[in-house]
Design a protein that fits this description.
67% helix; single chain; mainly alpha
Length: 525
């Protein structure tokens, strides 16, 4: 059940009405929302509704088990390990079994060894990676003592809540459960923001992401040899725009739909292509995943608290596992390793600048102390002592009174605004080649085509492609104040005019958009 469809519109209308009619009766509302979410998930494949039920029941049992043990005790750690192993085991079976078997067979084949391992056709449940991270955050927070176990019904609503079920944002239990426990007032719903998010998401999905996919991107990555170098370059840049507009569109619609139901979900994107470093990019791109990896993987590994070398290892391991979370393939692992390497380089540059800044500060301090006669409290020689007309210690101020400039080490000598943005976008776009490609050979074919056919432009280079690319990047540079003024202007319209504006907008989307909606890219993760 895709968001931009009549089927979902009818489903959401019924869910919206039932949500607010049953809100005063909390238990009935929770049961209704749970059933609605099961229907939404079952629309894809009813077999996997059982997966949601078992996941909620099993992880609630793990949480209660952990909560009943002494905090941080050995038994609690074993219980947590069992919960993590069970969840990762389910994820591994559905998502990584085929990848593991194929990799083992290929490796043994390279050693001239035969391996007769069964390769099963396993259907990947929708959104299983997101589901796994949500339930793990709940169990881990219970173990840490930052969250008390919820009731099974409340937790089940958190597990299955349909707006974020398929592709995020990865809302944590600590963010969502407090909203489940109490009734919400429809008068407090920010309808203007909700409609802006939903309509903006539809525009990004239908007019930019899907258009770029069908007009250029899919062809370039499927048969790059049939396109000129200029077309391939635009196709690569177009994919950067496509995946942003596609994924952020889902997040925007999910957040907007949740707002109409009275729920606040965390933002997932903050203009990522305006980033001036890879580190900043990951603070702006898929922010709920970045925070999850930081809080539940990077920091538990030691973060940056155990020395420089360990920090670099933790960065690489976190990003490689983040790449593997996205997909079962060596290209995803390499994509994560590219980001791990880039983050290590950035941290190393900061560490180097910090060391140089400390050295400069030390030298400045020595010069400052020399200027007031405190550089050498003890005379270097009897001659120096005798030649001193006045004892320096008696007349000079204390070292603490010497004013030192602040230590600044986080500024690049070349650090401006646009050059770092261009370089960061270029790196991110290059990395997307491996993310999009099915294999290394396919990725190298795309890269190789960049240098083979610059003599022609190609028929795929159209004004529409240029407009879509510029719009997808340019929207990230629109000041927030302008969006806020638009929301404020829409909110003061009477409901009839709001309905007219939305109806006209949807008609234009239907006319200008592609025929038939395409699935969101992150559904396969």
């Amino acid at each position: 059940m895709l968001f931009p469809t009549i089927t979902f519109a009818v489903f959401f209308l019924l869910a919206f009405i039932g949500n607010w009619l049953l809100m005063p009766r909390q238990r009935a509302w929770k049961v209704f929302m749970l059933i609605a979410s099961m229907v939404f998930y079952g629309w894809w494949d009813w077999r996997f509704v059982l997966l949601l039920v078992l996941s909620a029941a099993a992880n609630q049992a793990f949480a209660l088990w952990i909560a009943g043990l002494p905090p941080k005790s050995a038994s609690a750690k074993w219980a947590l390990a069992a919960a993590v192993a069970a969840n990762l085991g389910v994820l591994g079976w559905f998502k990584y079994y085929g990848f593991f078997v194929t990799s083992v067979v290929n490796f043994l084949g390279a050693l001239n060894l035969n391996a007769d391992l069964p390769l099963l056709r396993i259907v990947l449940p929708l959104g299983i990676s997101f589901l796994t991270f949500r339930v793990l955050s709940y169990v881990i927070d219970v173990y840490r003592g930052t969250l008390r176990p919820a009731s099974l019904l409340d937790f089940s609503v958190y597990v299955a809540f349909f707006p974020y079920l398929a592709a995020g944002p990865i809302a944590r239990a600590s963010e969502f459960l407090p909203q489940v426990r109490g009734p919400r007032d429809p008068r407090n719903v920010d309808t203007a923001r909700a409609f802006f998010l939903i309509f903006g998401g539809l525009i990004k999905k239908m007019l930019i992401a899907d258009y770029l996919a069908t007009s250029l991107v899919n062809g370039v990555f499927t048969t790059p040899g049939q396109y000129s170098s200029i077309e391939v370059l635009l196709g690569i840049i177009g994919y950067s725009v496509q995946i942003y507009c596609d994924f952020s569109a889902y997040a925007d619609i999910a957040i907007g739909v949740s707002l109409l139901l009275g729920f606040e979900l965390p933002d997932n994107f903050d203009r990522p292509y305006t980033a001036r470093s890879v580190q900043e990019f990951w603070r702006r791109w898929h922010m709920t995943l970045s925070r999850w990896l930081r809080d539940y993987l990077y920091i538990p590994l030691g973060g940056n608290r155990k020395g420089q070398s360990r920090t670099y290892v933790n960065l690489m391991l976190t990003m490689v596992l983040g790449g593997l979370w996205h997909g079962a393939g060596w290209t995803f692992i390499f994509w994560g390793a590219l980001y791990g390497g880039a983050l290590i380089v950035e941290h190393a540059r900061v560490d180097g600048r910090k060391q140089r800044a400390l050295l400069v500060q030390s030298q400045r301090r020595e010069l400052a102390l020399e200027s007031v006669g405190l550089a050498d409290a003890a005379p270097r020689s009897p001659v120096d002592a005798d030649s001193s007309p006045v004892p320096a210690v008696a007349t000079a101020p204390s070292p603490s009174s010497v004013v030192e400039p602040p230590l600044e080490y986080d500024r690049d000598p070349w650090h401006g605004v646009w050059l770092p943005r261009i370089l960061t976008f270029a790196f991110v776009t290059f990395a997307w080649i491996f993310f999009r490609s099915d294999s290394f050979s396919a990725a190298l074919a795309v890269i190789g085509r960049l240098f083979q056919s610059w003599g022609t432009v190609g028929a795929a280079v159209t004004p529409g492609v240029f407009i879509a690319i510029v719009a997808g990047i340019g929207v990230q540079y629109v000041p927030r104040a302008l969006w806020q003024r638009g929301e404020a202007g829409f909110s003061v319209l009477n409901p009839v005019l709001q309905g007219v504006v939305l109806a006209v907008g949807l008609m234009l989307l239907d006319i200008l958009g592609p025929t038939g909606p395409a699935a969101f890219l992150y559904f396969k993760f």
